[in-house]
Amino acid sequence: MKKLSIITSILCMLSTLFVAAQSGKNIKVTGTVVDEDTNEPIMYATLVLENAETKDVTGGVTDMDGKFSVDAPQGTYNMRIEFISYKTYRFPQQELTSDKNLGTIKLALDVAELDAVEVTGERTSVEIKLDKKIYNIGKDLTTQGGTVSDALQNIPSVSVDVEGAVSLRGNENVRILINGKPSAMAGYGDTNIFSQLPADAIERVEVITSSSARYDAEGTAGILNIILKKEKTLGLNGSIQGTVGAPDNHSLSANINLRTNKFNLFTTTGAYYRNSPGEANYDNNYETGSFDRIRENRDYERLRKGFNTNLGIEYYLTEKSSLTGSVFGRWGENDDESNTINDRYIGTDLNSITSRIQNEGQTSETYQGSLNYINNFNDEGHKLTADLQYSYDNEDQPTTINEYRTFPSDSLIDRQNIFQVEKQNEFLFQADYVLPKGDSQFEAGVRINLETEDTGYNLDQFNQETNEFEVDELLSYNFDYDQNVYAAYTQYGNKLSKKFSYLLGLRLENTQMKGSVSSPYYTQEELIDELDFDFDANFDKNYLSLFPTMNLIYEIAENENLTLGYNRRINRPRGWFINPFPSRSSRTNIFQGNPDLDPAFSNAFDLGYLKRWTKFTLNASVYFQRETNSFERIQDETGQTTDDGISIIRSIPVNLSSQNRIGGELGAMLNPTDWFRFNASFNFFKFKTEGFFNDVDYGAESTSWFGRFSGKVTLPAKIDFQANGFYMGPRKNSQTESEGMFSLDTALSKELIKNSLTATFNVRDVFNSRKRRSYTVSENFTSDSEFQWRKRQFTLSLIYKFNQQNDHNNRNKNQGNPNGGDDMDFEG
Predict the structure, then answer these.
(1) What residue stretches are annotated with the Outer membrane protein beta-barrel domain (predicted)?
(2) CB-neighbour burial class of residue 441 (10 A; exposed 0-12, middle 13-18, buried 19+)
(3) What's the CATH architecture for 2-109?
(4) Fold of 113-228
(5) pLDDT (tens digit, 9 = 90+) per residue, 773-794?
(6) What strand order describes the sheet that includes 589-591?
(7) What is the pLDDT of residues 701-755, one digit of tens each?
(8) Dihedral angle at the C-alpha atoms of 625, 627, 633, 637, nearest 10 degrees?
(9) Which residues, in sequence order, are CB contacts of 325 under 8 Å at separation 6+?
(10) Do strands 589-591 and 560-571 pair parallel, antiparallel, or not at all (unpaired)?
């Protein structure tokens, strides 16, 4: 509907210019279009003039004040005023012999169309398309003043754990894209960056569980495609948001656009200062080592401060082609301090108490430049797009560690200085060609994605005899990792009837993974011999694979449909899963990457159902996924002990033979009145993992579920109240059982100046209950733990908007995605 309106507007303007150039005396038709209920002007409404005899069409669109002025030759015309979500206003058989003023035309809302379209101004709505679900981020009060991580927590099918890891249907192997492409804004797989970007920058989130061949095959769980805002309104417009919070959560951000008929300037810029206190508790019991039990209490202070900006310009080369250039920059400083107290027991007797203070700093800078070219050969969707993108990220991470014995006597145990530098470079080229013909559409494209990641690590160990720091030459190293992906795809879609549509695709990808270790103190051979890794730290692997996709949709009725999808996908290990050198965040519990990791592959089926009523929408699906060579993080003993006799336990990712996952999800949206809205979703899944590592069976079988609800009500004095609840059910893998977890966010909002200034007060994690509680059993130890990443938080936000359209005019605005996604969507 939106595309048709835009095409009509363009044709009308072109026809006006053509007719004016070839005729004699023209008649001027003027008037004003307003909303029937509010009397506010409607921008971009279309005036269509169709000559009753020749059937020639001319016309124009309204300006920011709802006014139009159109020139047309003398004659008899059938005239109409059109705008999305409104009833068409008609003027049949109008004789134009002199200038004519139609006066003020009041358009009434088309309720039937609104039911199908979904009003996005007041809530997060859903659209079902052939290969994805689209959640339009509306006035979600609980994310005002929040971050991208906060917004993702409110998306059905998506969960964000206490450490910020994003899962889709309970599976962490999810690919995150920004505007349809890999991006430095997505943090190179480190989703912690989402806690630094404002939620207000998001226009919508596409949940792609059955992706088409257009998207890269990464992520066995599916894809989350985050589309950023880019205003379509002429003139200068935007919003400014300021937030204060406790614990410290202060930010200032702006989304500003300047749009003319020739170009569009846009920016999202923000600065932030946040402190996220957290805590962790561990109770470990050992079968071996000097101690039988160690109780560990850890307090965190995580200070984040920085500045980020995304600045771009879209330049219209012709009426059908444009070039968009953008630059993204992020500069941040982190200061993490953890204080760990260990009570160490022999039998039931307290033997000693230690205190470990770790200060980890981080200075980071990220740059990204991108170019996007679009050439629309016609108005029917025949087009060519090309993208070029380069990203660079540099992080310096100095760390100091001081550990003391405080009972029964005071003494120094360990001091370390760590210097780590990570540099990442990514180059991306992508081209896509779309050729529609009637109800069918053909697509083809190529993508080249080249990534390099270099890690330099230096460890200085304190020598208590000399009272000086000395370089630990064996654990001072460099690790270089390259991942290059070359891909080509084609897909074809068609409508076999008014009710049945399909989209078939095939993608070919070649993945190259290269890694090598080196040291300034040893030759490569000497280093590997000294470290005695139980895997090959130098590798060069290539994988050539085909990835078929299929998406079907059957329209049972106008507001009811069935969808069926199949796709094959890959999960490539990221750099920190590959890096063979152990982390130093703890002397006794370390994480170590595994260079022997191979990609995992999955085959997934998804059957979905959607039904819309006047005030109620139901969305349901069942899915099955079989993953081979799946990743599993296991814990085992290294066989090493600390200087004071504590066994060192490592966590390491390994390939297991397979994992089967079956589940179902149900979502509902209820909008009985203008003052009350409610939506809820429920996701249940069961998985079974099979596989051995070092002759130990790590097979496991578990069921779990998670659910969320969101309710919004308008109170007296036009104060809006919203509550979002989330519950993650208990789950387990081969070694660890995790308890269920509930959290609740609430918000109050009041519009202080109509259509301009709004104040919002948030309480995130009202009951301070967002904690991960788990119990791990291994051959020689057990661990009972509780971890809380961020404690309860209060925020107050002020949002000022200027020169933005009213809510009626915002309906269905910006639904197109210039940077990614399929045009042949066949909406349900």
Answers:
(1) 376-800
(2) buried
(3) Sandwich (2.60)
(4) Ferric Hydroxamate Uptake Protein; Chain A, domain 1 (2.170.130)
(5) 999 888 788 999 999 988 999 9
(6) 589-591, 647-655, 631-641
(7) 888 888 988 888 989 988 989 898 989 899 887 788 899 999 999 999 898 998 7
(8) 130
(9) 312, 313, 315, 369, 370, 371, 372
(10) unpaired
